[in-house]
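User: Hi! I'm working on a homework problem where we have to compare a predicted structure to a textbook description. Could you give me the structure for the chain below?
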Amino acid sequence: MTRTVIRAGSVALVRARLRRPFVTALGTRHFTENVAATVTLSGGARGYGEASTSLAMKTLTAPALSRALARLLRGAQGRDARDWRALVDRAWTLSADLPPAVAAFESALLSALAAESGVTLAGLLGGARTKLETDVTLSAWNDPRLTEEAAAEAARDGFKTLKLKVGGTLEDDLARVRAARRGAPRARLLLDGNQGLTPRGALALLDAVMKEGATVDLLEQPVRKDDLAGMAFVARRSPVPVAADESVATPAQAARVLEMGAATAINIKLAKSGLSRGLEIAAVARAAGVPLMIGCMAETARGLAASVHLALGTGFFRFVDLDSDVLLAADPAARRAAGWTRRGPRIGL
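Assistant: Happy to help. Predicted structure tokens:
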């Protein structure tokens, strides 16, 4: 039998507690509940993918993701993993409403193929880099002491860039920025609205933060994902790149957003697009000369591997936001199985 035939697939629940509550304009969570997919090939090689639940999309529950992944893995058994494009196209047809499940399925297939070939997934994707530096996220906590403490801890760990969740009142958001800067006065900032701001409110916040002397590198998804006119209003007036996150999950959406001038950067998350669609989105952005960001949801260190390998393999990303493992309580087993390394903000193979 061909070594790349899919012999088996399995699904497992992965639950991990967050070190601190994760708060955005869309809600609060104290733990992550993800679904792992493992693919085993006839030659013995294994691949792993992980689908994260979401605050932003309430339909992305662990039971729904588990059912979808089990169905996709059953349908793939006996097929040759080298036919992964057809398998992934079928997965999108069957589970388009559950993109993290499709992404986890695709990641498991491709990482199994890479293992069978004796290369890393990053190598399969181009092998452009061996190391990158990421930011770390500070949630939209209303307690300034918590923000200041987390920022100081990040600075001690070597993080030079903080991604701050905003999207509340101007006063609350500005207080959060001030607290972060007290904890890490030299840090550069990314501001993530998580769709919680108005167009004028986003610009007012950006203006206030910059007048206080903060260095802001990016404003991410300030307004509702379907308000492309509002995004364009911000993008035309912003002194820093405005990244579309929730507004872009497909190459067609990326093309539409850029055509409307609704963003000057694009954030790719595998949980939205999967690997192959993510590469197609990257191609659209790069053709337009627009910088790319890579983000994550609430994956464990092992679940984050596909995103790390994509970033390292392609070398496409100016903004790197691969920090979900840092936000979780220590998980030595997930770290040992991750297939990549971390030393503070520095990630590599």
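For your comparison, note the following. The two ends are 32 Å apart (CA to CA). The chain has a mean pLDDT of 95. Good luck with the assignment!
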